[in-house]
Each structure stands twice: as C-alpha cells, then as structure tokens.
C-alpha cells in the first residue's frame, strides 16, 4: 500500500514537471532551433571558408544585418547567397607566376613553344609542375585540388602573345576557372560547387 502511494506521488510529480514542457513544446523547440543551431551554422560556414578558400577574404557583416529576420531558414539562405556572391566577385588580378628551378626541368624543355597555336608536346608535364609549384592549390581561392581537377589559364593569353612558360601559367580550381571565364553571372553562380556545398548548410 505504501509503495502504491509513493508511486502515485512520484508519477504525479513527473507529470507536473513534464506538463509545461508539453504545453510550451513549440515555443521551446522553435527557440532552440533558431538560437541553438544558428551559431553552429555560422561556425561551420566560417570553418569551411577558412579551410577551403583561405585566399578569399569574406566580409561576414551580413550576419549582423540579418539579425532581425525571425525565419532562421530565410536568414541562413540570405547569408549563404551573400557569401557565394562575395566568392564570385572577389577581385583577382592575374600576375606573373614563379619560375620553376632549372634543375627540375627536363632535357627537351623549351621556354617558348615552337607554335603558339597549339599546346606543346610536354604540356601535361608543364601543368603538373606548375600545380606542384603552387602547393597543389588554386591560385585564386587557395583550395587544395587534385591534378585531375586542376585547370589552367594564362597571365597573358596565348592569342595576345603569351607563352606556355611557367611564369605565364596559372592553376585554378574548377569554380575559380568558371568565374574567370564567366560571361553570365547568374548561370555561373548556379553551377559552382561551392553553391551546392553551402546550400547544404541551410536548415530545412
């Protein structure tokens, strides 16, 4: 009998404690979702940009500018769109690159190609050496890239008299290559890998 009374009292106390949680569950979980996960969203976003695109200096003032937005998903969307736009707009000036030490060159290397109308026979070797020279990173954003995913542009375009010498070769990631060759901002941004990657951060 005593056990039944104790059980009833304990059950009553437990229900009394859980009842407010049940009644206000929407407010509590909405607050947790908007406040508890948003700072993780910001942290993850900054971490990704710093690790994968260290050369792109992002202005995060958009976070403060959207602080009055109550809809967390909309706020996160606005922030991601702003960062992707900054990534696209980031100024990049093509500059003469570092030369490769002569002891790393091969016997039949020619500083100037026989013809500027086609790639030299040793182009793949040149591209790989330029990629290694740049620490296997994109020259514009700093992202680490595999050789198979590395693209090349020239400081001075070949059609304008530029050569295939190392000082004229710039190594880029896929996204930065698209940006440097973009003729349509909207279409280019929608095709960027960083766009797909950051959109995944937005809470559904």
What is the strand and helix layout of this fold?
Elements: H1 2-23, H2 25-36, H3 38-52, H4 61-65, H5 72-89, H6 123-133, E1 151-154, E2 169-172, H7 174-180, H8 185-191, H9 193-199
Antiparallel strand pairs: 1-2
Helix pairs in contact: 5-9
What does this structure look like?
This protein is mainly alpha-helical. Helix content is 51%, strand content 4%. The chain has a two-stranded antiparallel sheet. Helix 5 packs antiparallel against helix 9. The chain is elongated, with a radius of gyration of 27 Å. The two termini are 52 Å apart. About 6% of the residues have low confidence.
What keywords describe this structure?
204 residues, mainly alpha, two-stranded antiparallel sheet, 9 helices, 51% helix, 4% strand, elongated
Task: Using the CA coordinates, give the radius of gyration.
Answer: 27 Å
Helical coverage, percent range: 40-55%
User: What is the count of β-strands?
Assistant: 2
Q: What's the overall average pLDDT, rounded?
A: 86
What is the overall silhouette?
A: elongated
Strand content: under 5%
From the N-terminal CA to the C-terminal CA, the straight-line distance is: 52 Å
- What structural class do helix, strand and pairing data support? mainly alpha
Largest sheet: 2 strands, antiparallel
- State the helix count: 9
Helix/strand order? HHHHHHEEHHH
